[in-house]
Amino acid sequence: MIIYSITYFINCLSSFTAKKESRVIKVIVLLLLIFISGTRYYMGGSDVYVYEGVYNQVPSPITVLTYMFTGVNNGVNPNYETGFLLLCSVIKSLHFSYFGFILIWTILFYTLMYKGLKNFVPDWAIFIALFMYKIMFYDTFISIRQGLTIALFCYMIQFIRDRKWYIYFPLCLVAFEEHNSALILFPLYFINLLPISKKFIKIYALIFLPTWFISSKVDISSWLYSIAEFIGNTHSVEHWAESVEKISIIHTLECYAVVVLILLFYDKIMSNERQKEVRLVLRLFMVTIPIFTLFRDWIIFTREKDYFVIMYGVIFGYILDSGTTTPRYLLSGNKSFKYSDDVGRNNCFIMKIAIMLVCFLGMARYVAVFDGGELWHFKSFLIEGASIFRGIGG
Q: How far apart are alpha carbons 16 and 230 in whole angstroms?
């Protein structure tokens, strides 16, 4: 827990320093995140050993490509997406060990996430705080196939904003070949058709709120079977079509806490100069509402939620942008806001402290309870003597 805490508090420090210093801190934090996710030594539950086995047994890239395009199987594991197997195969062919694969995967993950969101995120300190709490451990330690599709989606959302469907949809295919949960990314290109206003968000959230109580009565298994048959992934459908692993009420409460903050600070959010980005992020966030209410009983949505939960940190950044919660009306014709700047800056400071404290406690709780506290004591393969190359070291 020590290395997580050090990284977390160094990250928080960047939110209270000058712009030049915060850039240096941001680089340090990014390197620390790569160290944590990329050099972990058998941390992440049983999935670590499963993925290591898959990596060690994956055949040559030519064999995987032959299977991908012709269906001729000469030793390819049919239980995993061919895009993921191809990535494993290419890295393995360069004589990297499984630890080398994880390090390369991690660098790719953080590069895609940063490159994709740099024009969307106004405050990286707030974003990383939410990321370390809600995303990092599950999607960079445990579910690495989906983790990479989440990072790729972060890179892809700029093409939704810019309406570049001819780039977005081919990248959807790449993500889908990495993990089938990326199927949900295809219809997301049309998310801009969803209206955005304070009134609409309020009504939308209120409509879905009572559906939490009837979620156990909702049966979408026939839809899931149809989708699985369409994409040719029937071996997973029995697991998808289960209603036995409910999404915790904590997620629902957090989601609606974000809704309340959006409604309270809607004017500030919408006064941001990044108008296209703001509207797109709000639309993507709205997908979490039915996931955490009406569809919370279905295992498949425990997978899909992280594509959208990552937007929490972006939204908080819009609320706290420029060190104040006071709106800046940048478009002509808007009225001045009545709050004094002192009130706005005080609100911002209090909210930053509260968000960072809550996220730290949430992160600590996750680390403490996952797999009996297995993540609490961080172990790096650099210290354990393992090599990133095959046949060298332990």
A: 51
Between CA 184 and CA 26 the distance in angstroms is 31
For the stretch 174-213, pLDDT in tens is: 999 999 889 999 999 999 999 999 999 999 999 999 999 9
Q: What is the model's pTM?
A: 0.90
The CA distance from 20 to 39, in Å, is 29
Separation in Å, CA 356 to CA 5, 180, 293? 12, 33, 26
392 found inside a domain: no
User: pLDDT tens, 35-56?
Assistant: 999 999 999 888 899 999 999 9
pLDDT value for 12: 93
Query: Is residue 393 included in any domain, yes or no?
Result: no
Q: Which residue range(s) make up the domain with 264?
A: 2-384
Write the single-letter amino acid at 31: L
Secondary structure (H, E, C), 274-340: CHHHHHHHHHHHHCHHHHCCCCCCCHHHHHHCHHHHCHHHHHHHHHHHHHCCCCCCCCCCCCCCCCC
**Which residues have CB under 8 Å from 263's CB, separation 6+?**
198, 201, 202
* Number of domains the chain contains: 1
Q: CA separation (Å) from 370 to 52, 141, 374, 377, 393?
A: 20, 11, 7, 12, 29
State the pLDDT at residue 15: 86
Residue 316 resides in a domain: yes
Specify the pLDDT at position 56.
94
User: For residues 201 and 259, is the Cβ–Cβ distance under 8 A?
Assistant: yes
- Give every CB contact of residue 91 below 8 A, 6+ residues apart in sequence: 100, 101, 104
* C-alpha to C-alpha distance for 121 and 138, rounded to whole angstroms: 22
Whether residue 391 is contained in a domain is answered as no
For the CA atoms of the chain, what is the radius of gyration?
22
Q: What is the dihedral of CA 85, 87, 92, 93, to 10 degrees?
A: 110
Residues of the chain below pLDDT 50: 330-334, 336-339, 393-394
State how far Cα 67 lies from the chain centre: 30
